[in-house]
Amino acid sequence: MDCVFFSEADRKVVRGQPFCYTFHGIFIQNEGRAKISIDNRISPLSKGSFIFLRANQVREWITVTEDFSGYLLIFENEFIETFFKDPLFIHRFQFFQTNQPAILHCNERFLLENTNSCERIRAELDSLQDDSHHYIRSLLYTILIQINRSYIKEYNLSPKLYQDNISLRFRKSLEENIRYKQRVGEYADLLKVSRSQLNKAIRKTSGKSTSVIIRERLLTEIKRDLLYSEKTISEIAYELGFSDNSNFVRFYKTHAGQTPSDFRASHAK
Fold first, then answer.
1. Are residues 11 and 119 in the same domain?
2. What is the pTM of this model?
3. 50 within 8 A of 106, measured Cβ to Cβ
């Protein structure tokens, strides 16, 4: 885990270069304005913006003002699972779900509370003591819970995900297997539950069917390949398990409104 401040001399935001991380993180913007593309969705940012850096999402800074600064909290899955002794911990938070918006805009009071917590984490990391891991854990946990509550309220989401074990295991399995498994039955088998149990849990925590959640996640994966890889349409279709090219093109056009080739061409730089 680390917490860095982005107005420091050695911390620069690089514009015009797509990038992704294998870890999770939260960027808390406390000054300036910017625009960021996250999985090809451009969002304007200002003071009080919280940006959720989900593992493997492709991002690109579009514009950044000179006074842009903020705190970046970063943590890997292994650290989180060990730190909180919970393999599902990161999946308990709505703001870390891939199919949810990656931005939250907050007021001055909420911003100050969380930037103060970031400063305390930074100070503790700079001067570790025997009990530092307990103190850092409590600060990080408080930040995550506060953000999750605000996020749920802002986007009118269900708070039930936090404790629903079937839904949490499904979300984790979906991130690990989306490139190889795209059927509800496959995930029900992985989780050792019935299709009806899985559908009931997902409907309760998301308001959507399991098949819709899988489809949305698959479309995100396809778009990443189309925009940020050199793979041909046929290669993408084959790697994602489509029986042939025509089925892949039909699926994408039905759910995205245009062919894969048209989508790639329309976003070519």
1. yes
2. 0.87
3. yes
